[in-house]
Amino acid sequence: MGRNNERNIKIHNDKLHKEQQKVKAAKELRKEKLKQIVKKFNEDKAQENN
Predict the structure, then answer these.
(1) What Cα–Cα distance (Å) separates residue 16 from each residue in 22, 25, 26, 29, 49?
(2) Among residues 23, 6, 5, which one has the least CA distance to residue 31?
(3) Would you call 50 exposed, middle or buried from its count of C-beta atoms within 10 A (0-12, 13-18, 19+)?
(4) What is the pTM of this model?
(5) CB within 8 A of 21, min separation 6: which ones?
(6) Interval 16-49: pLDDT, tens
(7) Quick one: CA torsion of 43, 45, 48, 49, rounded to 10 degrees?
(8) What does the pLDDT look like over 2-17, one tens digit per residue?
(9) Which residues contact 8 (CB under 8 A, 6 or more apart)?
């Protein structure tokens, strides 16, 4: 039994897409956290200069 029937192809593709979504979500989360860190850093620098 391989992936050569419709049911197994669907199961495989669903697992694959689920993993891809996890990776994409993690990447977006990291990007958002980085934005927050940069924003806070810039605010701190602005306060130091005043």
Answers:
(1) 10, 14, 16, 20, 50
(2) 23
(3) exposed
(4) 0.67
(5) none
(6) 999 999 999 999 999 999 999 999 999 998 888 8
(7) -110
(8) 668 999 999 999 999 9
(9) 1, 2
Q: How far is CA 21 from the centre of its chain?
A: 7
At 15, the amino acid letter reads K
Tokens of 17: 């897409």
Of 49, 47, 27, whose CA–CA distance to 35 is shortest? Answer: 27
